[in-house]
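Teaching assistant here, posting this on the class forum so everyone can see the example we discussed in section. The complex has two components, and the goal was to see what a joint structure prediction looks like when all of them are supplied at once.
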Amino acid sequence: MRRFVIGQAKSLSDRTRQHHRNHRFVSLFLPSSSSASGSVSSSRLFSSASDMAGSNSSSSLPVTVQSINPKVLKCEYAVRGEIVSIAQRLQEDLKVNKDAYPFDEIIYCNIGNPQSLGQQPITYFREVLALCDHPALLDESQTHGLFSADAIGRAWKILDQIPGRATGAYSHSQGVKGLRDTIAAGIEARDGFPCDPNDIFLTDGASPAVHMMMQLLISSENDGILCPIPQYPLYSASIALHGGTLVPYYLDEATGWGLEVSEVKKQVEDARSKGIAVRALVVINPGNPTGQVLAEDNQRDIVNFCKQEGLVLLADEVYQENVYVPDKEFHSFKKVARSMGYGEKDICLVSFQSVSKGYYGECGKRGGYMEITGFTPEVREQIYKVASVNLCSNISGQILASLVMSPPKVGDESYESYMAERDGILSSLARRAKTLEEALNKLEGVTCNRAEGAMYLFPRINLPQKAIKAAEAAKTAPDAFYCKRLLNTTGVVVVPGSGFGQVPGTWHFRCTILPQEDKIPAIVSRITEFHQSFMDEFRD
Amino acid sequence: MRRFVIGQAKSLSDRTRQHHRNHRFVSLFLPSSSSASGSVSSSRLFSSASDMAGSNSSSSLPVTVQSINPKVLKCEYAVRGEIVSIAQRLQEDLKVNKDAYPFDEIIYCNIGNPQSLGQQPITYFREVLALCDHPALLDESQTHGLFSADAIGRAWKILDQIPGRATGAYSHSQGVKGLRDTIAAGIEARDGFPCDPNDIFLTDGASPAVHMMMQLLISSENDGILCPIPQYPLYSASIALHGGTLVPYYLDEATGWGLEVSEVKKQVEDARSKGIAVRALVVINPGNPTGQVLAEDNQRDIVNFCKQEGLVLLADEVYQENVYVPDKEFHSFKKVARSMGYGEKDICLVSFQSVSKGYYGECGKRGGYMEITGFTPEVREQIYKVASVNLCSNISGQILASLVMSPPKVGDESYESYMAERDGILSSLARRAKTLEEALNKLEGVTCNRAEGAMYLFPRINLPQKAIKAAEAAKTAPDAFYCKRLLNTTGVVVVPGSGFGQVPGTWHFRCTILPQEDKIPAIVSRITEFHQSFMDEFRD
């Protein structure tokens, strides 16, 4: 029987939660003292205040892990978890103790952060951003020697789309209307179906958009969100923070991380039998951490399932540009739904996109959007309100989102150099994915599905019992044990599979394909050597 | 007896909440079907799914206002509320029906968004941002003709602070370490007390930082946060979204919006008698919407109170550069606390800062930080984890936050032009504040405290009974009735006091001081004429 476990902070948070549940409801605004309201005991909470008075020791500071929101305690985010903290400490120590380690640098393969590993930004995009940041440049004749003509033209066009050309002003809560027009046109060109700019909400990367939808859909722990296992831990973290229940469905490793609707159906029924109202289905396509690209047939089944079961389809499509194999192609879920004849009134669909991924990899710009369709005007108004509380996403990120959805076209001055940069990055990523996959598959007891898309490999390691016992003795999960050993021996940082979820008893890690191509051979040989000696040490 | 009321969505959300509270706790990750778990009825939630199957009408879409998170329904944000929607519709209609209105433009005085009203960005800041966005410029000789030498030097310095000079990479979850060093040095120079860069969390504006703290501190409706009334509605919105209780304390209009600790104390006692655990005190200094600047004595009392009562002091200090009167000065709460001898282990203090305000007004860049002191390492780890889930704030905003905390210095090429821009903006804001305040005080039945700081005036209108009755007939709050009339007659957008909270039976509106100076006389005469005719119509 499959069982997915997160241990840390669980018992503590349960205890705190139980305590809370003994309290009665009090409205947001505390009524005045005259209003009728019974007294409620809250000794835990009061003690923090009364203990504090007059005391000077740090132990009497009012905020403790026992008194904070248990949902925060419960949340986990492995991609920047313990192993990354260890890596950062190693990196600091390497600066002073260079000879103490069998490697001379830390190679971060833990996170999809291409430019941190040397990927260069697309020149045209950066030209436009610089001009929009400092529009006074557009009045200077020297500017024509420094920037391409189409970047200058595009900057003018964008500035004209922004009221008052004020790139330093808060925009409309959904983002600058003119930029949303551009994005909508890009989506239409991609899908061949209409897109309404009023369906676009520009956000600081995809993460805040995911949080916004979780906040909307989750009222309590009785609301369930279907997530693939393995999943990108943003989803489990966001569900934890909003107090909902993650309903797992397992991707099938044997069929290249296939998504089987029968498995999803089984999990929905199981959840419902436990009183969970399943609200939405998260699909990550191309997959993270699993790298598969869904077939269109499969997508149709998923759309039909969501339609039949009344689920919101939350489509994480941030890797839409990252497809590396000739037999697969990205199709947006909206295109699939529309081509099946399902319109705005048939299915609730949210598509997440980001400027952090693709061939551009502009993680630091924090740009992205969600396209929402199939929501009633009243619900949309609520989404708009939540967006308004944060005023707007950053304008550079908004501009960049419009650029990635409408890059240079044939005939533009930048077109050829843009295409060369783009194809150079994508073809290199494809080669890196292939090389790493082949190398991993050569390791004893390791099997690795191909990365059809996205930026990751998720190999399975059949760990010897002796290694599992050693991990138990070290009070760590066996895959984390393996990954820490790998880090300490090679400087390569990967994330244990337990951070993403995996079928119990199986062990994996996630490794990005992002180190620059000239580093790949060294990474391959370091991992290969490490694995061999690890197996020599622990082979049963 | 004072009573602060928010009506909208209340009964609906209460009903939904009651429903949820009948359900038992279910863990984040749904256990497998084999685990023991009693069945729980959730008919409301299931019906959405079963009603849906096979239906095609929009009424059967699975997400309705009845099924979404009631906390979202409960949240309100007046600064972009109904009156702004009306203004946007008017603005669209003005384009085609110019002659239908007694004004030719909408003047947005609803929000602190200086650049949307024509304020120009600080040249030096934008030069540095453009160079960091497109570092290839730094290798070109023409660049020296287009950018100041110190902007070029600063861009190099910043790029050297960013690992791999990668402005397109995710940074450390708290923000680029080198930029935090710069900010910490700026805080030390401001306060004369040490600042640890590891206490700084860079954020996309101040709003996400406020949300992060509310998320940490609020576990349930039994957790109370003290907020000034009137308050900036980010606070009420964030408390609502996180399910806590806003404990109001009233600023005293008669003493220039004074903050009296006796009033805060009374409200804390009242809250505690109702079973609320008061966790934190929000202070906005300079005040929003009220514009007062706290005296240092008063700040000491507040610090002592928080210390005695074991409250986290959440200091909204985003207007720290906006002080307009010679008899007042900004002092950070950290400086005040440290000068009283309270150290890291004595008091929990969070200071919020933003690049959106000050003389720079870079709202669209979404930069800001919070400085947290007095939290245990375990709690800090939890804050770090929550920051990590969103990866990092946008790098341009991070860079800008470092620039505003460390602007050009004497001797730098840009220093004089920078100072001229800065002082030009601040002195103009001071003049605008004075002119508007005097004009408002001349209106029949209107009294207006001076704007000592921040960007707002918050005049009180003694509305005639006849106007109040007319508002009741129109099913709107009297202050909203006045503001809508003002908008429809003059095109000037202000926010009704009810969006910020006010002593019941008093009516106010918030008006920014941000329209460019050449527009102020027209605004004054429009408001004066409108008010006179409004009073002529409704005078008792």
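For the discussion questions: Chain A touches chain B through 170 residues (CB under 8 Å). Confidence is low (pLDDT under 50) at residues 1-58 of chain A. Think about how each of these relates to the inputs above.
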